[in-house]
Amino acid sequence: RGIDELGDLRGQRVLLRSDLNVPLDGDTITDDGRVRASVPTIQQLTAAGARVVVMAHLGRPKGTPEAKYSLAPVAKRLGELLGADVAFAADTVGESARKTVAALADGEVALLENLRFDARETSKDDAERGAFAAELAELGDLFVSDGFGVVHRKQASVYDLAQALPHAAGLLVRAETQAFSKVLDDPERPYVVVLGGSKVSDKLGVIDNLLEKVDRLLIGGGMAFTFLKAQGYEVGGSLLEEDQLDTVREYLTRAADRGVELVLPVDVVVAADISADAATSVVPASAIPADQKGLDIGPATIELFRGKLADAKTVVWNGPMGVFELAPFAEGTRQVAIAVSEVDGTSVVGGGDSAAAVRQLGLDEDAFTHISTGGGVSLELLEGKELPGLTVLES
Ligand code: 3PG
């Protein structure tokens, strides 16, 4: 159900769950991608004359207020992006929230303080969450769910509130779910998935699910070394998850049985240490020196991956190819991102570090079909899981 189906919004108080969980350095937002992504839904609501009460979390505080997790800097940035004042309530369901909401005129926006300053938001106890949702529900007439990054969480502002108020999905949640369902349920072929990131143990469910669907699986990043080791190579000081070797061997067998091309790095950029001025060299993946760590894919692998992406009609990319935050190890991620963006078909960046990499490396965001704002939620979708925050919207 979309916002259009909520009826006339003029004068209605709309509780809007957004995902504004952004990285902060002190008071400075270092990547405002999620704040920007929340804007179109807010604008649609204000244009329709609603009084918008935005609810969000920041970080993982332990259920009590902590200054470093305050959403105050986010309220400021949101106001800049909207070109309008955003009233900031210093609490979530207390006096400040009630007064702030009562003072809103039609078309105005308020942001409540971090929902996770109240332990009931994330409680495992249905009654506790329900009680918090009931208090939130007093601040609004309608609920719009647009925090795509949190729809995998069974939390009061994501799940229980949808049971307490008439509700709809916001534009971001709709765009994200449509992008994922296209690549998961109806991919044009060849269908290529590029996986990276440090740990294979974070991606087991994803590999399990995707091995049934894709034509090619390209693997880079720290997780590649467990695959290389499983193939009998020595990986020096590179990241290695010994306890996943059997699982990875099984993936290699399953890929072969199913005719899925599983493509691993053929060369890697190595250094003795992870630092911005590290002395690097490129070595074959089969000859990583014992005292070196693999920290990026090498140039031959970039070419190999480019070739495997060239004729793709659907690509999903999740996880960087190396330690892209440091210049000596950024090239693999940069070149793979460019190759993904050049695909003549659907290209979806699966959120988290890969979406951050696109922005930090200054790449053209519009060149991709979709860049997800999700982190953990993107992985759960790629794992094929049902998500409580989406299921509840269907009721
Ligand atoms: C995220 O950063 O992935 C979302 O905001 C969810 O945060 P959480 O993992 O702390 O629930």
Offer a concise description of the structure:
Substrate binds at residues 19-21, 34, 57-60, 116, 153. This protein is an alpha/beta fold.
List keywords for this structure.
395 residues; alpha/beta; Rossmann fold; 2 domains; 6-stranded parallel sheet; 14 helices; 17 strands; elongated; binds 3-phosphoglyceric acid; transferase
What small ligands are held by the chains? 3-phosphoglyceric acid
> Under the CATH scheme, which class of the largest domain?
Alpha Beta
CATH architecture of the largest domain: 3-Layer(aba) Sandwich
What global shape is seen?
A: elongated
Gyration radius (Cα, Å) is: 22 Å
Number of strands: 17
N- to C-terminal distance: 10 Å
Which stretches are poorly predicted, pLDDT < 50 over at least 5 residues? Answer: none
Helix content: 25-40%
- What portion of residues belong to β-strands? 15-25%
CATH superfamily of the largest domain: Phosphoglycerate kinase, N-terminal domain
Structural class determined from secondary elements: alpha/beta
How many structural domains does the protein architecture include? 2
Q: Kindly state the mean pLDDT as a whole number?
A: 97
Task: Sketch the major β-sheet.
Answer: 6 strands, parallel
Sequence of strands across the biggest β-sheet: 5-6-4-1-7-8
